[in-house]
Amino acid sequence: MLSNSDIExxxxxxxxxxxxDDALDFFGLHGVVCASVVGPVELSAEDIxxxxxxxxxxxxxxxxxxxxxxxxxxxxxxxxxxxxxxxxELPEPEDGDPMNALENWSAGFVETFLEHEEEWLEAASExxxxxxxxxxxxxxxxxxxxxxxxxxxxxxxxxxxxxxIPDSLTDLYLLFHAPD
Length: 180
Description:
- The longest helix is centred in the last third of the chain and has 23 residues, at about 155-175.
- This protein is about 70% helix and about 0% strand.
- The two termini are about 30 Å apart.
- By secondary structure, it is an all-alpha fold.
């Protein structure tokens, strides 16, 4: 579990110049790390940094140690929970809009999926993977699909999708990581 000071340090890094305008917030970063854990492609801290900050290269070739340590801790905690049969808990904002935080989390998760879509779809049944991705795809706000828009515009349907995410994450993890 990350401390509040770790989360603040991560957000200071994410919102720093020159990538701060394009970077994900902590919720989006959490989504990226989660996709790395549940999906078939385990990302390095450098890859996660690149995705979270929308940069092509790691500046100076080295990411901050607090970022590396925090990402490793998040990954370890998520994998441990899943290995123990526990559903993953998504971070909740202390204040503000929980649906906005969920959209940011989903966007980080989906962007990571899209970065490695071929590997995800080749590692398991394409249909099953696609079905399990529906809640995150819908809530990410990354697609203008009319059906996704209808769900996002309905509080009830949005909540149903949000409630489905923990089970989808567990099922994706088992799909890619359970022994045959």
